[in-house]
Amino acid sequence: MPKRLVQKLILALTILVVVVEGVAGLINMRTQERQLLNAMILGADQLSKGIASATWHAMLADRREAAYEVMQTIALKQGISRIRMFNHEGRVMFSTAPTEQGQVDKTTEVCSACHIPGQPKLHVDIPSRSRILVDPSGRRRLAMFTPIYNEPSCSQAVCHAHPESRRVLGVLDVALNLDTVDREVAGIKWRVLLVTGVQILLMGSFIVLFARRFVEAPIRKLIEGTRAVSDMKLDQPITIDSSEELGELARSFNVMRDRLRQAIEEINQFTQSLETKVEERTEQLKTAHERLMKSDRLASLGQLAASVAHEINNPISGVLNLAMLMQRILKDDGVPPDRLNDFRKYLSQVITETSRVGRIVSDLLAFSRRSKPQHTNADLNKIVKTTLSLVDHKLKLNNVAVSAHFEEQLPPVSCDASQIQQVVMNLILNGAEATQPRGSGRIAVTTQSDPKNHVVALTVSDNGEGIRPEHLSKVFDPFFTTKEEGKGVGLGLAVVYGIVESHGGDIEVKSTLGEGTSFRVTLPLSPAEKAPVAPAEAGAASRR
């Protein structure tokens, strides 16, 4: 079944024409054949009656031989196949075929037409007295039998008088060849087939031309119009004058196209205007942003100066006071023995406060002068162990216990060992300070590899008070601190974040109030340690 509308229409109409023309041709052929047979039947009836009339006088005079001779002479005419005469007993009294004379058979078709069960028929119409016979050679014959009635002249004749009660004396059977009719019927068939074929061809051609001219061509124009609209070619109108309906459809389509073009023009104008406004606002925002950045830098610088001054001022003031106390204790001959413990106590406090100043300055320098890391292959386990040994004494003084779990044969990472050591130290010391309010704290340090993501992870967890949820997003911001005033400027975690980021790593923080905080640092493996990506994973990665 074709998929195109025009092809379906042509196929359907062609099938309809073939069916209609075929039925009409068949009816026409059957009608003409019936007319020819009816004409032959009428001719055969007239011939049969003519033979009966021609032999009437001879039969009335009982000159049978003369009557048979007349019939024999007529049988020689072209088109007559056979002439027979039956008496009332069904005996063949005469036949142009001598072998049939004298035979008796009332079951033959000549007798059976009248001798039906019950009362025999006396009068039979012409169609009932005709029949078509087919001989063994396949030739057809039209047989017409005519009853010979017992007229008064016959029943009153002295020579061979028939009883008046006998209504039918015999039957005259005449058979005519139908060769001429068959040839004419064959000619009719060929003419009907030819005419029908020509009509089908002409009507089919008309259907094809009509469908293509008035259906396919307008539809193609509509399709081209829709394609032009889909390609945003809105200056190509559609003109269809083949039919009122398709013309109205084309006009509606053109109206839609014009409205779409107008809408697009309005949208383009609006977009252009919007882009101009966006550019203007962008320039304004850029200028405002530059001003804001300058103000922010100045504010940050002021905040930094104030924070540093405040943070340094406290320990310096303490050192100054301690120095004054130590100056009072110190005599010309040295430190009195009874004040030696106080002197040492004050000296220890001076060392502590001075170290605090040094740490503040170190954090400030690390934040402001962050150098580019020098990447080398380093063992993270070794860096962590070295850092723990450096801060072990301080952790014990602060009553902080450390539990470490190191993955054996940890792959090397590409990093600056000194900067990573600073990260580890800041995280451990921050954890230790977070546990101080509880009096005794615990810190867990873990290292493990993640071959799937080609990284090594360092986790530092504490059991401190935790960080409030609203502060988690700010812990890596410069100058942000949750410590008590005077105990930090908020640069430690900012320095950690900057170092990890410069190494291409990542740092995450999770915290629960009352339970503690956990920092997870991931660092990329050394390029030589990265496992090759499988083909399937490589394909998936390229698709992503």
Short account of what is shown:
Strand 11 and strand 12 form a beta hairpin. A 5-stranded antiparallel β-sheet has the order 2-1-5-4-3. Strands 7-9-10-12-11 form a 5-stranded mixed β-sheet, covered by helices on one side.
Model description:
Helix content is 56%, strand content 15%. It is α+β, with helices and mostly antiparallel strands. Among the domains are: 181 residues, PAS domain (Beta-Lactamase, 2-Layer Sandwich); 161 residues, Heat Shock Protein 90 (2-Layer Sandwich), CATH 3.30.565.10. Strands 2-1-5-4-3 form a 5-stranded antiparallel sheet. It has a 5-stranded mixed sheet with strand order 7-9-10-12-11, with helices on one face. Strands 6-8 form a two-stranded antiparallel ribbon. α1 runs antiparallel to α7. It is rod-shaped, with a radius of gyration of 64 Å.
Layout of helices and strands, plus pairs?
Layout: H1 5-54, H2 56-60, H3 64-75, E1 80-87, E2 92-95, H4 109-112, H5 126-129, E3 130-134, E4 140-149, H6 152-155, E5 168-177, H7 179-230, H8 244-329, H9 340-368, E6 376-378, H10 380-397, E7 400-406, E8 413-415, H11 417-434, E9 441-450, E10 455-462, H12 469-472, H13 492-502, E11 506-512, E12 516-524, H14 535-543
Parallel strand pairs: 7-9
Antiparallel strand pairs: 1-2, 1-5, 3-4, 4-5, 6-8, 9-10, 10-12, 11-12
